[in-house]
């Protein structure tokens, strides 16, 4: 019996160690499911591409789809070394590395991209490029897209395309159905000057905070609401605390594909074409996937007990009216003629 007991104990300990090792391995490599099914060591050229978020978000997962497509189309000559989950640092750090050429490309959040060029901020301006359909029109209309795409060239950065992470709204601890309700919330907003300006114009309480600091701040009550999208809030478990979402839909959350132009110019012409074609076509396909992901994540959140609310049309118009001064100041930074052209073309 003693021997049997020792054998059972040994077996249990072995299983425990194995399970622990399994958990450790899973924790160590959260990107295991996205590992390349090829050996990139023989590539002639490597394109280092950064992003801060998780590839389960379709707009981020596009980086891996671009990687695999470029590898196949280039017959192994060009490897897209995609690094999500802030492996290369926070967005402000990566923007500096991108300008220097230490990083070659970046799927930058639209809130961070305005730090590269003011004109890129137009997509984060409230109630301008605010729906999926308007985003498609903006991207597919050359006279609207090209000034946006060329706006960072003076910094040596190309703007190649965009993917997304859904429409912006408010995830809050208590329900927000009116502007008066919103006044009681302390919102976390991104580290972006435009966002701070329109929150001031709205008269809202807000705290500028890096994304990694949000979970603890939400749990401890330092903030009581988030300015973000339903896709991100549900996937990153923010709805476990902030169980209400106001569908403000004031902007589309975007990942803007920025590229170091000097690096790109050194690529052979055939590889340039392969890379740009892959980025453009996969980005277009991903924008459609993001529409579906938004609907799916909203449905999952509702099933889990998250309450979704909307402001009345009158209150939504009040938000637009309150940021008229921001339209003026940022319109000048973006380029007033261009800003008005985009507004007119999108029916704003």
The percentage helix is: 40-55%
**Average of the residue pLDDT scores:** 93
CATH class descriptor: Alpha Beta
CATH superfamily: Bacterial extracellular solute-binding protein, family 7
Task: Using the CA coordinates, give the radius of gyration.
Answer: 22 Å
Q: Total domains, how many?
A: 1
N-to-C SSE string, H for helix and E for strand: HEHEHEHHHEHEHEHEHEEHHEHHH
Distance N to C terminus: 81 Å
The biggest sheet, with number of strands, parallel, antiparallel or mixed sense and barrel status, is: 10 strands, mixed
Q: Could you say what the CATH topology is called?
A: D-Maltodextrin-Binding Protein, domain 2
Total DSSP helices: 15
Count of individual beta strands: 10
Instruction: Give the CATH architecture.
Output: 3-Layer(aba) Sandwich
Task: Kindly estimate the percentage of residues that lie in beta strands according to DSSP.
Answer: 15-25%
Shape call: globular
Helix vs. strand class: alpha/beta
The poorly predicted ranges are 5-17, 19-26
What does this structure look like?
The chain has one domain (35-345): D-Maltodextrin-Binding Protein, domain 2 (3-Layer(aba) Sandwich), CATH 3.40.190.170. It is α/β, with parallel strands linked by helices and 348 residues long. Mean pLDDT is 93; it is low at 5-17 and 19-26. It is globular. Strands 1, 2, 3, 4, 5, 6, 7, 8, 9 and 10 form a ten-stranded mixed β-sheet that branches. It has helices spanning 2-28, 58-73, 91-100, 110-113, 132-140, 142-150, 179-182, 193-202, 214-220, 230-235, 261-265, 269-303, 313-322, 324-334, 336-345; strands at residues 45-50, 78-83, 105-109, 157-172, 186-189, 205-208, 225-229, 244-246, 252-260, 307-309. 41% of the residues are buried.
